[in-house]
Amino acid sequence: MADKKIKIAWFGRHFGEEPPLIGSREEGAGGIFFAGCNLRCVFCQNYQISQQSLGRYYSISELADIMLRLEAEGAVNIDLVTPTIWAEPIIAAIPLARRQGLKIPIVWNSNAYETVDLIKSLRGLVDIFLPDFKYSDDRLAYKYSQVKNYSTTAAYAIAAMLENVGHPRFDRFGLMSAGLVVRHLVLPGNLENSFGVLDSIAQIDQRIFVSLMAQYYPLRHAFSYPELNRRLSKKEFDTVQNYQLQLGLENGWYQELTSAKMLIPDFTKPEPFGMI
Q: What does the alpha-carbon distance between residue 231 and residue 217 come to, in Å, rounded to a whole number?
């Protein structure tokens, strides 16, 4: 295990997460963006790293050092982005960093296509789970992301995450210190999929904090799917938001439609986040 390598595309302070996860402009989330992914989303905004595998390899001890460096630079947490396929070395790196003084929360920022056993193995290591519950319709999951049984797998994983860390807790500065937040990216032309995702979340627990995302932007292979080859409309997003409230899912955040372009990264640049 000591020789295990982890491929990282970029790390640094990141300001594209929910407000309680980034703090002030002098702080930010300590983003570590891993290369590779267990999904192959045709619209992935991070396709340069998830599918083209940009990045370089680091050792477990180097990953621990990166965590400590981000904390020293002022990051309010360690935001592990797309960590699932690198779970084994990450599980080794976290306690190593803790033994060297790391104190800020660990965020597991994933696509929720994970086993319950994996989530259980993260108990006591990960403080905040930030899964993106993408699909309630398994036909869409296979069509757009090339995976089977997504909806059930994600629902069980999220229930296990909630059991691990509970609902969000905040410190006296309003920063999130622990808990679960479930994201959902609303896809244009697929509102029934969003309704089903919200139904599943409500069935797990109506108190779950939901981050409803409007940042969809047609990238990668989206042009091959007419329903995806456009921006999300305000009417579509408002319809999903109203459905969420009807279900009693009242905790969380909503994203502005204007944020879509701002969150498209270019990982060929030293500072990948900016306008396209």
A: 6
Can you read off the two tokens belonging to residue 54? 């940009």
The answer to whether 168 touches 158, Cβ cutoff 8 Å, is no
Distant-in-sequence, close-in-space partners of 188: CB < 8 Å, separation ≥ 6: 216, 227, 228, 230, 231, 232, 233, 236
List 14's β-bridge partners, or say none.
29
Neighbour-count burial of 30, counting CB atoms closer than 10 A to its CB (0-12 exposed, 13-18 middle, 19+ buried): buried
What is the C-alpha to C-alpha distance for residues 125 and 120, in angstroms, rounded to an integer?
10
Print pLDDT tens along the chain (276 aa): 556 899 999 999 999 999 999 998 889 999 999 999 999 999 999 999 999 989 999 999 999 999 999 999 999 999 999 999 999 999 999 999 999 999 999 999 999 999 999 999 999 999 999 999 999 999 999 999 999 999 999 999 999 999 999 999 999 899 999 999 999 999 999 999 999 999 999 999 999 999 999 999 998 899 999 999 999 999 999 999 999 999 999 999 999 886 565 668 899 998 898 644
Which residues are bridge partners to 108 per DSSP?
A: 80, 129
Distance, in Å, from the CA atom of 52 to the CA atom of 267, rounded to the nearest integer, reads 11
Could you give all domains of the chain from N- to C-terminal order, each with its CATH number? 5-263 (3.20.20.70)
CA distance 158 to 33: 21
Ramachandran bin of 131, using left for φ above 0, alpha for ψ from -120 to 50, beta for the remaining angles: beta
